[in-house]
Amino acid sequence: MAIYSLWIFDRHSNCIYSREWDNKSKSSLVNVNNAKDTAKLLFGTIFSMKNISQNLSKQNKLKSFSTLRFKCHFKETGSGLKFCLLTDPELEDMQFLLDEIYTSCYVNHVVKNALSPVDFRAGQVIGSEPFTSDIDRLVVTLPSFST
């Protein structure tokens, strides 16, 4: 079981942060694939799954969905931010991690930062090293990260 990547989209569907981990080579990438088709496909999939979920039940909110290769854990904030965590399909619910990333990392390093934009322009990303370090601290210490 493993955690593959974290993606953050703003309310305008721009990918403002991506973090990918490769557990085998112990390497990681930050904001490398934001402009590529991967981010667009992921956002489109989340958008479609969210619409299907809402059409099936007005009470139901999309929290995760699985394929044969990955499980997508999803959190949307009141301001329209979308947090997406891709993991191994066998991994348990990771909503607690998405909540922690939002409250302790995003709020502390982006919302409370006077130099950070309120609305990100197309192509603009979160480039804060303390933000990335805090995310790594949360994710890498999980037992499910290295197994």
Automatic annotation (TrEMBL):
InterPro entries: Longin-like_dom_sf (IPR011012), TRAPPC (IPR007233). GO terms for cellular component: endoplasmic reticulum; TRAPPI protein complex; TRAPPII protein complex; TRAPPIII protein complex. SUPFAM superfamilies: SNARE-like. It is found in: Endoplasmic reticulum; Golgi apparatus, cis-Golgi network. GO terms for molecular function: guanyl-nucleotide exchange factor activity. Coiled coil: none annotated. Keywords: Endoplasmic reticulum, ER-Golgi transport, Golgi apparatus, Transport. SMART domains: Sybindin. Its main location: endoplasmic reticulum. One of its GO terms (biological process) is endoplasmic reticulum to Golgi vesicle-mediated transport. Part of the multisubunit transport protein particle (TRAPP) complex. Belongs to the TRAPP small subunits family. BET5 subfamily. This is Trafficking protein particle complex subunit. It comes from Kuraishia capsulata CBS 1993.
